[in-house]
UniProtKB/TrEMBL annotation, chain A:
This is E2 ubiquitin-conjugating enzyme. Residues 1-151 form the UBC core domain. GO terms for molecular function: ATP binding; ubiquitin conjugating enzyme activity. Keywords: ATP-binding, Nucleotide-binding, Transferase, Ubl conjugation pathway. It is an enzyme of class 2 (transferase).
TrEMBL record, chain B:
Keywords: Coiled coil, Metal-binding, Zinc, Zinc-finger. Residues 190-235 form the TRAF-type domain. It comes from Lepraria neglecta. Residues 400-411 have a biased composition (Low complexity). The keyword Lipid biosynthesis does not apply. PROSITE patterns: ZF_RING_1 (PS00518), ZF_RING_2 (PS50089), ZF_TRAF (PS50145). GO terms for molecular function: zinc ion binding. Signal peptide: none annotated. Residues 400-434 are annotated as: Disordered. A zinc finger (TRAF-type) spans 190-235. The lineage of its organism: Eukaryota, Fungi, Dikarya, Ascomycota, Pezizomycotina. This is Uncharacterized protein.
Length: 152, 434
């Protein structure tokens, strides 16, 4: 049942892709691992960069939330700076996940987060503080990282 | 699951036969795994399995899911919390377990009308059926469903279409070409789709190709004869590909093909839509008539609209929708009248109840007063008697206690008469308060 829903969601997203996002399967045989290329949204310090994300759907999907991680390094209060690049907030948290939420919503959520970080829910405290107290510096750093790691 | 395709030739390999024919589970058919032919309203889609609802149920928060999806969701929630409640998969509200209610019948009808492909399509069944009939199709009619082998002594199954052979198809046979062994019933599929050795010659160019590739070869064989594109519309020109291309440039019918095809498609779509609407209409009509039946006791109060409905039932009407609207309108009036009547009756009844209760209250207070005075009198009598007895016991010279103890009239004779009188007035004052 889950498999069928995943296939359906995947083909729907292929047919009607989200703006500035490209989705593919690293391995055709495994529908549970998706790769997403997302353009840094206009007006954000990530503009001009392309970020690779990894979406992993648990076997219990849709009853357990998918996990989303940045494979491209990104200067963002809600994404860990380690090589995992994991993020866990809002609708992705197990106790806030709704089985009726679609992957499309998850991806839109990630994009919205690039436009507007949530410093109160941060995993990188330093960046969050900088975002709140010294926005200029934050933008400068984020732009620099985008240039360095997320070049097209 | 995976079986070696290179199993040693000569040995009967039942496993291999199974692998070439993986059968979906059809007993019962998993309705959530079916492929739907019609596009359906997205509101009919279960938010959990993303299929049209299967046995839908409604939670207290009015969200609807398949029964099995709700069960699945429950089984994925925390062990201790799921005993009595479930978190709604759409709004995360806590829902008591028992607050799961069925949905209106009409929704199930709409869902059962959605057309699906037979789950055995992968084996070759071309049927498309209403979802509500698909289990029946598989159980009784599907040519690709498994039934018991007609041979009494054989316990295996055959496809229903092979029943006509009236004999056991389970004897092991060898493929003439590759020497692998198969049960007879699987041999044909092996030969036409899987055999890596068997060859056949193309009927047009006489080239030798693998049997399993023959179909593909004919598609692109340069010497194969093809009919004109407009064959179904009346052109009977047949030629090899090259000549055909020239013909197509001149054939007037071939030019019309896209147009004709479009027309055909439109006709078919209209027919399907008409059929669908007809069915929907009949469902609505039956539900309307049941509504009318339940309302019939009140119908003789207001026979005007119902008789007009009966008239339009017999007479021809330009559009069924109009007819339904009329029916709907008259029913709405009827309901309005009934509700007005009900509220009138309600008002009357509540007036009556109020009057009655006022009267009863008065009666009650009256009775209370009586009881109070009785209690006073009893008390007075008791105390008088007690006093009397004491007096009799201590002072025998006083007046005789017999008269005082036996009757209430005697109370007037002694000095203690003031006490009960005062109390009597007390109790009446209390009663008026009630
Ligand atoms: Zn469902
Ligand atoms: Zn709900
Ligand atoms: Zn069938
Ligand atoms: Zn048999
Ligand atoms: Zn063979
Ligand atoms: Zn040929
Ligand atoms: Zn022609």
């Amino acid at each position: 049942m889950a498999q069928k829903r995943i296939v359906k969601e995947y083909s729907e997203l292929q047919k009607k892709p989200l703006d500035g996002m490209r989705i593919s399967l690293p391995s055709e045989a495994d529908m549970h691992q998706w790769q997403i290329l997302i353009d840094g949204p206009k007006g954000s310090p990530y503009e001009g960069g392309v970020f690779t994300l990894h979406l992993s759907l648990p076997t219990e999907y849709p009853f357990k939330p998918p996990t989303l991680s940045f494979k491209t390094k990104i200067y963002h209060p809600n994404v860990t700076n380690d090589d995992k690049g994991s993020m866990c907030l809002g609708m992705l948290r197990a106790d806030e996940w709704k089985p009726s939420s679609k992957i499309e919503a998850v991806l839109s959520f990630a994009k919205a987060l690039l436009l507007e970080p949530q410093p109160d829910d941060a995993v990188e405290g330093g960046i969050a503080r900088e975002y709140k107290e010294n926005k200029k510096e934050f933008i400068k750093n984020a732009k620099a990282w985008t240039k360095q790691y997320a070049k097209k | 699951m995976a079986t070696p395709t290179s199993s040693s030739p000569g040995r009967p390999s039942f496993l291999q036969a199974d692998a070439t024919l993986q059968r979906p589970q059809v007993n019962p058919v998993d309705l959530r795994a079916l492929e739907y032919v019609d596009s359906y309203d997205h509101n009919l889609m279960c938010a959990i399995c993303h299929s049209p609802f299967v046995y839908p149920v409604r939670l207290e928060c009015e969200h609807v899911f398949c029964q099995r999806c709700v069960n699945d969701a429950m089984s994925h929630q925390d062990r201790d919390s799921r005993v009595y409640s479930i978190t709604c998969p759409s709004c995360r509200r806590r829902i008591e377990n028992r607050a799961i209610t069925p949905v209106p019948k009409i929704l199930s009808h709409i869902l059962d009308d959605l057309r699906v492909k037979c789950p055995l399509e992968c084996l070759g069944c071309p049927e498309v059926k209403a979802r509500g009939d698909i289990q029946d199709h598989v159980n009784k009619y599907c040519a690709y469903a498994e039934v018991k082998c007609p041979s009494e002594s054989c316990l295996l199954t055959v496809l229903r279409k092979d029943l006509d052979e009236q004999r056991c198809l389970h004897s092991v046979m060898k493929c003439e070409d590759c020497e692998s062994s198969f049960m007879e019933r699987d041999l044909e599929i092996h030969r036409s789709r899987h055999c890596e050795v068997g060859k056949a010659s193309c009927p047009d160019c006489n080239a030798q190709v693998l049997l399993r590739d023959l179909e593909g070869h004919i598609e692109c064989c340069p010497d194969a004869n093809f009919p004109c594109n407009a064959a179904e519309y009346g052109c009977d020109f047949v030629a090899i590909r090259e000549t055909l291309d020239e013909h197509l440039k001149m054939c007037p019918l071939a030019k019309l093909v896209p147009f004709l095809r479009m027309q055909n498609e439109r006709l078919e779509a209209h027919e399907a839509a008409l059929k669908h609407l007809r069915h929907k209409n009949s469902i609505l009509e039956t539900s309307l008539s049941t509504i009318q039946e339940t309302l019939s006791p009140s119908a003789n109060l207001i026979d005007a609209p119902s008789s007009s409905a009966a008239d339009s039932d017999t007479g021809p009407f330009d559009s069924t929708a109009h007819h339904l609207l009329c029916l709907h309108e008259s029913l709405r009036e009827e309901v309005n009248r009934v509700s007005a009547a009900v509220s009138e009756v309600d008002a009357k009844a509540s007036m009556m109840v109020m009057n009655e209760s006022l009267r009863i209250k008065e009666d009650l207070s009256h009775a209370n007063a009586v009881i109070g005075s009785m209690r006073m009198q009893l008390h007075w009598l008791m105390s008088a008697r007690l006093q009397n007895q004491q007096r009799v016991a201590i002072v025998r010279a006083q007046s005789s206690g017999d008269g005082l103890g036996s009757s209430t009239d005697a109370g007037g004779s002694s000095g203690s008469v003031e006490l009960p009188v005062r109390r009597l007035s007390d109790s009446t004052r209390q009663d008026t308060k009630l």
